[in-house]
Every structure is written in C-alpha cells, then in structure tokens.
Amino acid sequence: MINFFRRIRRKLADDNMPLKYARYAIGEIILVVIGILIALQINNWNVEREAVIREKNYVQSIYQDLKRDLRNIESNIEKLSSQYTNSIKVLKTLEFKETVALDSVTLATDIGWKLTQIIPIERKENTWDGLKVKGTETFIFGDSLKVLLNDFYGAFDLNIERFNQLPKKVREELRLLTGKCHDYSSVKGVFENGIDFYGGYSPQLRYCILSNGKTLELIGAISLSCIVNIGLQKELKKELEAVITYMENQFIFLPKKT
After folding, report:
1. How does pLDDT run across 143-173, given as a tens digit for each residue?
2. Staple 104 to which of 19, 89, 175, 205, CB 3.0 to 4.6 Å?
3. pLDDT in tens, 32-49
4. What angle do helix axes 215-250 and 167-178 make, rounded to 10 degrees?
C-alpha cells in the first residue's frame, strides 16, 4: 500500500519539476505518519485483544476458586452440624444416663474424636489474592465485582480468625482434659476395682469424664460454638452464592445454573 502511494506521489512531483523535491519530502513525511498511525492502531487492537483474553482467564479462575470455596463451606456446615448433634448426645448421656445410655466405646469416640475434631475452617491463597498483591485488579474488573469479592473474602477471613481464637482452643482443651478417659488401661488405673469390660456402658468411664468439673462446660461451649459457626457459615454461603450468581449473569462465557 505504501509503494502505491509513493508511485502516485512521484508522478505528481514529476509534473512540476521546481516543486519536485518539496512534494517528495512532504510525501515522505505523510507516508511515515500514516505508517505510524497504522502501526499504533494494530498495536492497540492487539493490546485490547490480549486484555480481553487475560480478563476472561482471570474471571474463569476466580469463578472456579469461588465454587471450591462454596464446596468447602458446605462441608464445614455439614461437619459442624454433625459435631453439634454429637455434643447434644454426649451431654444427654453424661447427665441422664438412665434415658440415654451409650456403650463406653461410642462415648469415648464421641468425646475423644468427634467433639474434639478441629473443623478446618480455612481457605487457600487464590487468584483474587494474587491480583490484589499485584495491584492489577483495579483496571481488570468493574467496581461492582470488586466490591462483592472484597466483601466476601473479608467476611471469610474474619470468620476464620474468630474460629481460631476460641472454638478451636476449646476443642483442644477438652481433648487434653478427657484424654485419660478414652483408653482402657488408663481408666482401669484410676479405679481400685478396675473395669470388667470396656465394650458395654461403663459407669467408670462416665465418672472419669465427669470427675473434671470443666468437662461439661467445655462440651457446652463446643455445642454453642457449633451453633454460632453454623450460622456464620450459612451467611457466608449466602453471600458467596450471590457473588457466583452475579458473575454467571455478568459474563456470558461462564456456565449458567440449570
């Protein structure tokens, strides 16, 4: 194309020899300017195309992170609900043995493992965290999505921090206090008469657990923490589902709910 313009320019310049070199110089300048403008436009197109591809990849990656977080939160709710159910069962067994009698193995398992199990309320570093560290989230996403993501992950991190401050420590303390009551030989060593069997309901085991006055308090605290954290996790789930729904409606390349 540039060669075509140059042939036209030379022909026009040859028709008037005194102005030949002036026209030639002006023509060269115009051609250079046109070439620069074309190159800049092509470069802008490439930059815009790469930005669109990059944004699409980021959106898809963030979407997958959110879906993973949703599965983890649902798992947390299920585990906390199970732990709450076990805490109520244990409290009834310890306080009202005549109406709710558990064999000693079940009771030891419920307290020694199910109640003291640490629910892993946590999250891994993700795409959104990486973008914020780089400072690139500002120009890639619209304000609405940024607010939704920042609000959700801010609430998630706060929930993790609160859980680690008290409920996790309560479970660890209960495990230490009742640890000696979960082993046959340890329980046998506590009482002079020993234990005839460990598989049936054992009053000795119950007495061992209740011998520490703080045991029921800790089990009650675990029960209460389960209720509180189930509520918090459900609120997080609701907020997370709103973010996912927004992204599915905003970006046509994301899968839609069926």
Report:
1. 788 889 999 999 999 888 887 777 778 888 8
2. 205
3. 777 788 877 777 787 777
4. 140
3-state secondary structure at position 48: helix
Q: Vertex 247, ends 244 and 253: CA angle to 5°?
A: 120
d(CA 231, CA 179): 30
Are 205 and 94 within 8 A, CB to CB?
no
Nearest Cα to Cα of residue 59 among 121, 137, 118: 137
What is the DSSP-derived secondary structure letter of residue 18?
A: G
DSSP secondary structure string, 138-159?
Answer: HHHS-HHHHHHHHHHHHHHHHH
Neighbours of 94 (CB within 10 A): 19
Cα–Cα separations (whole angstroms), residue 93 to 72, 106, 122: 31, 11, 32
Given a cut of 90, is residue 66 above it in pLDDT?
Answer: yes
Longest dimension (CA), the chain: 128
Minimum mean pLDDT among 103-112, 172-181, 240-249: which range? 103-112
- pTM surpassing 0.90? no
Report CA 23 to chain centroid distance, whole Å: 67
- For residues 166 and 22, what is the distance between their CA atoms, to the nearest angstrom? 85
Asked if 121 and 159 count as a contact pair (C-beta separation under 8 A), the reply is yes
Mean pLDDT in the chain?
76
Q: How far is CA 237 from CA 98, 118, 119, 151, 165, in A?
A: 40, 20, 16, 13, 21
Position 10 scores a pLDDT of 59
Rounded distance, CA 119 to CA 76, Å?
7
